[in-house]
Amino acid sequence: DAALDEANVDRFRAALREAAGETQFIVITHNRGTIEAADTIYGISMGSDSTSQALSLHLEDFDGRRELVAD
User: Which residues pair with 38 in a beta bridge?
Assistant: First the structure.
């Protein structure tokens, strides 16, 4: 989705939502618009001991979920 303009990101998000009732998707993206449409965000980062650490954020647990994504 990196090459999509805003209108096509919206269409992509709508297509994912439409199919989400029947299947799951793992989307790897840095696109803010796509991230905002997610129910859950997973991240991998390097810890202070140089090992990978996984984290998850279930956006449905928060009010104002659109404000959680950093600029």
Answer: none
CB 44 within 8 A of CB 57: no
CA dist., res. 45 & res. 19, Å (int): 30
In tens digits, the chain (71 residues) has pLDDT values of 678 888 999 999 999 989 988 999 899 988 888 888 888 999 999 988 999 999 898 877 776 545 554 44
Q: Where along the chain do its domains lie? A: 6-63
Q: 40 phi and psi, to 5 degrees?
A: -140, 140
> Helix, strand, or coil here: 65?
helix
